[in-house]
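Justification of computing resources. Each target in the renewal requires a structure prediction run like the one illustrated here; the chain below, 211 residues long, is used simply to show the kind of job we budget for.
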Amino acid sequence: DAHAWTEVWLAQKGWVRVDPTSVVAPDRIERGVAGSLSAEELPGFLVSGGPFSRIWKTIRFGWDAVNNEWNIRVMGYSFENQKALLEFIGIQADSWKARIRLLLIAMGAVGIFILILAFYFFKKREVRKQAIVEIYEQFCSKLAKAGIARQLNQGPADYAAMAIASRKDLETQINGIVALYIRIRYGHENSKASLKTLKALVKAFNPGKTV
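Resulting structure tokens:
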């Protein structure tokens, strides 16, 4: 691995192949960095007998072991290995019934995986929806305490119009909160930043004060 060939352009000669590693003594390559530099020039983890040399050696050997297992288990995963694995779990690879059984198992595993993903995203969406509703209910509660209670059949836009009719001084705040709520709840504005902004607007909303 410690060898390379390059080509350089020389006037009157054109491209010439050059071996830049030929000036390095072979025994120096075999000794490695630790054998080529003095103890003062070496980093602490390469000094033999140093405080970190044992840790470095353990890490290096561990990495070599991982690479070896990768080459054996993944890169060298041949048909024979597949067959041995199937036979180990009780499936005869040479039987057509076993192949059908294996196909059904694979399809079942994929189906279960898809269901888990669907449940995860559905649950995540429901949690987010609940958080949005709670923030909006806080907004409605503040208006109700100010004497502007929301009717059960009123949507956000109708409720905002009724509240503004009673409190023109809150028009900008109410429109801003309700418009953002509608975009998050029913539109495509579903970023965390938008939800955080809505929460901050509702928290700062104080209908008890008049302008």
